[in-house]
Carbonic anhydrase
Amino acid sequence: MASNGNNDSFSVAFESNSKWRRNLAELKPELFEKLGKGQSPEILWIGCADSRCPETTILGLQPGDIFCHRNIANILVPTDLNSLSVIQYAVQYLKVKHIIVCGHTSCGGIAAALANKKLGLIDTWLMPLRHLRQQNLKMLEELPEKERGLKMVDLNVRRSVSVLLENPVVIDAMVERGMQVHGVIYDVGSGELNELDITEDDELVAERQKAFKVAE
């Protein structure tokens, strides 16, 4: 069978795996044996499926360091069983110490939500972004195009953080063992990671806990 671009790409990736495995085994000879026995990551990463945003590479960490969930435009909604399952497993069973929600510059999902293009099934997934745009329409339309996209990335991360903070499992972990939630934005053009200020006053935190915390 004649090779094509896809087969060539796969072959390169497969060869790279062999080199990566050998190099890592030399640098950290105990790592694969340790990973074979289980995982104990301290970070849950919730990010975008974009190929330019590999969480372990961005953070300079190793296999086993990060439990992750990625989807188009790092959207979190309180009814998505996929993300809810990941969050519960990471928080309740793996006992992660940090949850990071990461948005990024030049996000195709953000651009699609701002452009009103018909995309089919993806339109349904992007609905939370369109709602977010509607809620902030006047402010967004007053911004230049590039800043508009960046602002939507910011708003989207903050919205996903809010969804996390309303999750009873997350609330319990924050109260009982000090787990922390972070919102960050990754610049794909520079590799820089910037943390958003998501600090809240004690009254708001108490009100949220009263509204969303559930008893067994």
